[in-house]
Every structure is written in C-alpha cells, then in structure tokens.
Amino acid sequence: MDFNLMADITPLLIKAAWVTIDISARAIVIGFMVASTLVFLRSIKFKPLQWFVRGYVSLVRGTPYFVQLLLVFYGGPTIGLKMDPFTCGVMVGAFNIGAYMSEAIRGALESVDSGQNEASRSLGFGRLQTLGYIELPQAAGLMIRSVGVLAIVLVKNSSLVSIISVVELTYQAQRLIGSTYKPLEIFTLSALMYIVIVYAVMGIVELAYRRATRYTTQ
Amino acid sequence: MELDFSPVLTYLPTLISGVGVTFVIAVVVGLFSVVGGLLVAVISIYTNKVVSWPLRFFIWLFMTTPLLLQLYFLYFGLGEWILIPALVVGVLGLGFHYMAYNADIFIATIRSITNGQYEASRSLGFGHLRTLYYIIVPQAFIRSVPQIGNNLILMVKDTSVLSAIGVAELVYASQYAISVSFRPFEFFIVIAVIYYVINLFMEFGQSRLERLTAYRR
Q1: What's the ipTM?
Q2: Cα separation of B158 and B154, whole Å?
C-alpha cells in the first residue's frame, strides 16, 4: 500500500464522489416525481393510459440501464434529444428508477387493507383526504423501505454514467488507475467512498422510516 | 431525423454473434454464481469464524460497491501481474458479483430451515455432511428459487456492462457497426428490444419454475 499516493489522490476522489452524490440525489428526487406521476396515471380509470404506464414500466424494467443510457446519450440526438452528459445521466437514472419506484409505491399502497379506504369514505372523507390522512400514513413505512433499497441501487448504478464521460467516482478511479498503476490503493479508497455513501443513504432511510412509523405499532 | 433500419439489417450477423456471446456468458456466469453462491453460503454458515468472516466480508464488499468499479479493478488490477483476456475477467467479475448476492440469499434460506430437520436427520444416522447434502441444502435451494431467479434476470441485463472493459458481447459487438453507419439510435433500439425479448423469456421461465416448486415451499 502506497499511503503517500492515497493521501495525494483523496481530494480528487472526494471531488468525484461529490459528483456521484449530486447525480444520485437529483435522480432520486426526479425519479420519485416520475414514479408518483406513474402511480397517479395508473389509478385513472382510462384503459389506454393504464396500458401506457404498464408498457413503460415493463420496457424500462426489461432492458438494461446501461443500454438505456447509451440509447439516450448517443441515439437521442437523432430524434432531437440533445443533452450534456451530466443531465443525461440524471434524467436516464430518474426515468429508470421511476419505473421501479412506481411499482414499489403501488405495492405499498395496495398493502393497506381496503377496509381502511371503505371505512374512511363512509365516515365522510373525500378520496384525496382518504389518501392523505388514512392510506399514505399506513403505507409510509413499507414505501420508505422499498424506495430506500431502490435509492441504493441507483447510487451503485450511477457508476455506469462514467461510460458517457461524466467525471464521477468510478470514472475518476478508472482514470487514476490508468495513470498511476496502483489499482489496489485506488480501489480501496473509491470502494470506501461508495460504502460511506451507501451507508449514509441507509441511515437517512432508517431515520425517515422511524419518523414515519412513530405512531403506528409494527 | 428520419429513421433508417437498413444498416441494422446489414450488420445483423454481427448482432446475432453478439447475442451468442451474451448467451454463453449468461449461462457460464449463471452456473458459476449459483453453485458458487451455494458453496460460499454453506461454508460460511458451517465453519469457524476464521473462514466465515473473510467470506462474509467479501459478500458485503461485493454488495456495497458498484459492478463497474469491481470490473475495472479486476481488469486493470489483475493486468498488473498476469495478462488475462477481457472475457475471462468479465465472466469472473460478474460471477463474483452475483455469487455474493446469491450467497446472501442462500444464507438466509439455509438459516430458515428449522433446526429440527438437522436433528432429525442426525438421529436417523446421517452424518453431518450427508445431512447438509441430502436434507438441508435441497430444502433451502427450493425456497430460494424466486429470489435467485430475480438475481439471474438482473445478471443477464448486467452482462451489457461487460462491454465497458471490452468483452465482445451484444453491446460491444455493435459498437463497430454504429461507428461505421452513424445510426446509434436504430442500433440501440434493436439492442434494447433483443434484451427485452430475452427478459420476457426469462420472466416466463421464472414464473413456471416458481409454480413447479411452489408446493415444496
């Protein structure tokens, strides 16, 4: 182990790790909005719309994220979709994880017993009020856990963005391995940074879970 | 922006050979990761801490870091000492990655088999290894079918990542055709459709397998 080298490259890797965090955070926020929209569209009783959502989710889940990234980045300009690498990474990540998240959110909402909905409606709550006051609070625990797992998947997937030359952690690590020929040192450092990021996400998810379920006994 | 799929037809043999390589990689990695995962799980449960802790550590390390980083490390890292072809590195990297995921599942399912099974088997005269081989592992394996199936589906999609280190599978095989024909959109659409069809078959197979084994769970 060459500790001098490790000390030298740490600032570079931290800067790159920040890009990984940036790209993942944006993709998770936008992805959650995409997922909520998909769940909403699917709840509308209009068959073509439901087919569209199901088709979209099936297509996104059935093809590799890597191919989606290449398709949008290199193929996008053909159909007038030009983006810089960073934006492309965020958007593809968001629309990819959005499809997975929509299933997770739908599953969590469906896990709430239908009697809750009926009781609430018969007590005079409107549909939105039922969703907001009765169903969401009960589904929140499961929803946060499954969305949290997907957030970790997204952080690890963000390494693939290096292929369209976004200078994030994996890209920087690969470049440093190429220029220093010290793979073990660089792998140790960059793996450590991924582990820190993943554990930070897990911690945030755990806090959110505790807060969401503080009034429900589980 | 008119679409032109004729270059895709011209390079169809290239794509088909790419699918062939992807298929071979998927089969080899599938066998390697399932059998290896089972071995790692059994060894890490039934041995002392000196053996099991390093195994647990590697399972944890492979699960918390991205596949691409592991591939780069193996490819450029091993390249320092020995020269091995990208295909071998890719198969090993993907294999170890999913071996860790599978081992994690097998550990959970082996633990879920009640102790009574072990005790009953031992009292009927089976030795320790025979009990594991005939009684514990088969039951655990059947219980893990759904999750292992999920992992295999994810693994087949992740074979596309191997193109980053230059393994000549589907995505990499089409790179040349794309750079010659300047038709990235058409090629990647076709590639995506190929993966989607493979995925449909795998999901069908998985649901059949789950139904076949459901009565034993």
Answers
A1: 0.88
A2: 6
